[in-house]
Amino acid sequence: MPGFWRLAGSPLKISMNCLSSVVGYNLGAVAGYLLPRLRSSRSGTAAVPCCIVLLLLAPSIAASSASSLCSQQVNEPARDQRYAVMSTVLKRGFLFVQVDVAKVVIRFGERTAEVLRQAVQGRAPSEQLDDKVAEAAMDSRDALVELTFERDIALTRFIDEARRSTERVWKAGVINRKAYETIRQLLPFWYGSLRGRGIKKDDRMCYQIRGDELRTVYVGRDGKVFLNQVNEGDSSCLAVLGGYFVKGSDFRKGLIDSLFRPGASDSPETRTH
Description:
Blueprint: E1 4-6, E2 14-15, H1 16-19, H2 27-39, H3 47-73, E3 84-94, E4 97-108, H4 110-120, H5 127-138, E5 142-149, H6 155-171, H7 177-190, E6 204-210, E7 213-219, E8 225-232, H8 234-245, H9 252-258
Antiparallel strand pairs: 1-2, 1-8, 3-4, 4-5, 5-6, 6-7, 7-8
Helix pairs in contact: 2-3, 4-5, 5-8, 6-7, 6-8
């Protein structure tokens, strides 16, 4: 995943390859990386206190902004902009019954919304139409995604599923192998703050895509922010949206079918899912 990440609310911008573990607020790992380099730099001891203050303050600054993303910006899209909304519930078989695992709602901005409306207007669902809708959705650079977990999930299983999803996106030709390998390796670091806790029912994960910038926020059911991360680069956005819309995705059919539900072309104020 090329580019840089930064903690939201802070001007700090550091190469992902250097300090990927900080996205889980692993301050010990970050300090272990930075301090030896700062001591050997020309700025010397003067840089060390500044670095420590930044590391201590950044999580609290970012947490406030992150909570706002999931509770306001995702749930209350701008009223002056027409959105296209897709939603579905992921189900899994358990003891011969289907149980809800997660609910996803994706809101697309005005440009993508218009493409989607024109694609489905007056047409019946078909494989060719599904491909057209999926392509438009994956190409969007103005989207808000909210994933709400309906069951507890072990972190190892969650990461395994994320890796399989990213592999599908790579094999579909949406991202290259280097991006896939980078994401695969960094997933445990990104979600390191959930180690020992895992995914809990009613936790939420939000993605905000604006241009080539992807912001990822994970908020626990009690409002605690576990992850607040920004990635820059086209591969980041494609990996996320591709995970929902490439062939073989567990979400693809439900999301695309939701466009054909009654009221799907209405404004956000009147639409229900």
